[in-house]
Amino acid sequence: MADGKGLLNPDLSGSREFESHRLRNLTPSALLWYNTPVNKSTIFVGVALIAKKRTVGGYSWLLVKTNKESDWEFPKSIAHKGESSVRAVIRMTQEQFFMNATVLEEAGRFTGKASPEEKAYDKMTLYYLFIQKSGGSDISGFAEYKWVEEGQVGKKLESKKEKEVFMVAKKMLKEKLTRKRQTP
User: Fold this and answer.
1) Confidence (pTM)
2) Which domains does the chain have, with CATH numbers?
3) Higher pLDDT residue, 9 or 37?
4) Backbone angles phi, psi at 167, to 5 degrees
5) Nearest CA among 103, 76, 40, 54 for reference residue 161
6) CA separation for the pair 13, 77 (Å, rounded)
7) I want to staple 79 with a disulfide (CB 3.0 to 4.6 A). Which of 6, 10, 44, 172 is the partner?
């Protein structure tokens, strides 16, 4: 299945079925293990950069902690069998965030390695810019979550890659809003 940008997304879960009630409290490394392809060499990870309009102007962005000791980061979801990376983050916004959100566009991508089962896999991480429409006040599956004002997001993030993608996403959102206001 293509993820909308021409990338093929392989079967990532083998014969395992997705069981959301069992997966909600797994650590990211356990989730990687659970979703590791048996005969595939690439794991696709979708990342949601979700902006929420504040009542006083500007936007807040959703950050999460996967466990109490982890750093703040954007929420991530691993693609399952027959699922694109963008579909994985849409599923996450619905199942874990109870949120209606619109995908605006891809904000970045990085490749790397993952080794959840003592075997190295290629990992493709794709970042998607979302705008929240409704919901998102009761989020499950993370140790903590926080809506962070735009000016504070860079201070909360530890990952250089996530800081870079956030700057791109912020610019994309501003451009989209400017174009929307200019359209009659």
Assistant:
1) 0.73
2) 20-182 (3.90.79.10)
3) 37
4) -60, -40
5) 76
6) 13
7) 44
